[in-house]
Amino acid sequence: MAKIFQVTARAGMTRVVEPVARGLLRAGVSPNAVTVTGTVGVLVGALGFGARGHLVAGALIVTVFALTDLLDGTMARMSGGSTRFGAFLDSSMDRIADSAVFGAVAYWLATQHQYAGVAAALLCLAAGGLVSYVKARAEGLGMTANVGVAERTERLLIVGVGGLLTGLGVKLALPIALWLLAAVSIFTVGQRMAHVYRQAQQAGHE
User: Fold this and answer.
1) Which CATH architecture describes the domain 2-201?
2) Can you list the alpha helix ranges (DSSP code H) found in the chain?
3) For a disulfide at 39, which of 23, 93, 116, 194, Cβ 3.0-4.6 Å?
4) In this predicted structure, which of 54-58, 84-88, 99-103 has the lowest mean pLDDT?
């Protein structure tokens, strides 16, 4: 059910993103430029606003710029496929942005003496890195790991909604979102490892 919802949501987003991607390509904007711009926007939202307690503004900025993760990929496909450097740049910028988001959240929660939330934010950062690492390592070994309920965009949207609600007065929304995100991220790591294990077992019997 979660996978069906995820696919449906992404299909809906694709219909919105494609005209924008097409327009940017016609204007001469490259996918790499969108990747860097998206990362800078996330850094501004997380460090410039979120870490200073402006949670509503920070969450909105991070959420908007996190969606460029879909935009640059769509642009790359429309322009004939991602280059090797483009794929490298995208992954590197994602790690920088993720570190800024969860670092900013952990810092702000620490200033509020919400140490359980700090632990959850750090766990999200570690688990999110593992989600990406497992996929990259699998692909480096000639296998795939494109499974799981917690892709990067979904992870940032969850923490963004939590930050937005906390900024609007729902105090426990952000810690709850972080613990939920930590759980689904760890579950996704397990899903990907199991998926790779099945591929390795199948290859061993061929």
Assistant:
1) Up-down Bundle (1.20)
2) 2-26, 31-43, 55-66, 68-78, 84-111, 115-140, 152-167, 173-204
3) 93
4) 84-88
Tell me the two tokens of residue 173: 């929304």
129-163: per-residue pLDDT in tens?
A: 999 999 999 999 999 998 888 778 888 889 999 99
For 88, counting Cβ atoms within 10 Å of its Cβ (0-12 exposed, 13-18 middle, 19+ buried), the class is exposed
- Each residue's pLDDT tens digit, 3-54: 544 555 555 676 788 999 999 999 999 999 999 999 999 999 999 999 999 9
Q: Is 113 left (phi over 0), alpha (psi -120 to 50) or beta?
A: left
- The catalytic site residues sit at 94
Looking at residue 152, what is its pLDDT? 82
**Rounded CA separation 72/203 (Å):** 34
Record the pTM.
Answer: 0.87
Which positions make up the binding site for Mg(2+)?
69, 72, 90, 94
Binding-site residue ranges: 32-35, 69, 72-73, 77, 83, 90, 94
Q: Extract the tokens encoding 111.
A: 């200033």
Phi and psi at residue 203, in whole multiples of 5°? -65, -35
Domain ranges of the chain: 2-201
Which phi and psi (to 5°) does residue 5 adopt?
Answer: -60, -40
